[in-house]
Design brief:
Radius of gyration: 22 Å
Structural class: mainly beta
Distance between the termini: 23 Å
Shape: elongated
Number of domains: 1
Number of strands: 7
Number of helices: 0
Length: about 110
């Protein structure tokens, strides 16, 4: 955190690994798809600027970017009515990634 008069600036950098993520999709065609992934790296970046209006009131604006990098995983298919499992597990038959950018702004009052 850094202060410049009434302004306060802060940042965030975070990274890591998601371990053993999985997914279960129920489809209208009477199928269930189970997907298992290996370790997936992620990163998160953020910044926040605040302005102190008075001793007890301040404004802020913040932004974050989060990304889970593209990964492939194995997929198994089940028939919903019978519960029967497909004879094949589709190696690298599933894929996923995710990213999001969020903004927030606010007024903070302490009393």
């Amino acid at each position: 955190m850094t202060k410049f008069g009434n302004w306060t600036l802060s940042g965030l950098l975070r990274g890591g690994l998601s371990t053993n993520p999985s997914d279960i999709d129920h489809h209208w065609r009477s199928r269930v798809y189970e997907e298992d992934f290996r370790t997936i790296p992620f990163i998160s970046l953020g910044a926040k600027a605040g302005y102190q209006i008075t001793e007890r009131a301040s404004l802020f604006l913040a932004g974050n970017f989060d990304e889970n990098f593209r990964a492939k995983g194995d997929m198994t298919v089940y028939d919903i009515p019978t519960g029967a499992r497909s004879s094949t597990t589709f190696k690298d038959g599933a894929g996923m990634d995710f990213y999001a950018f969020t903004m927030s702004a606010g007024f903070k009052l302490t009393f």
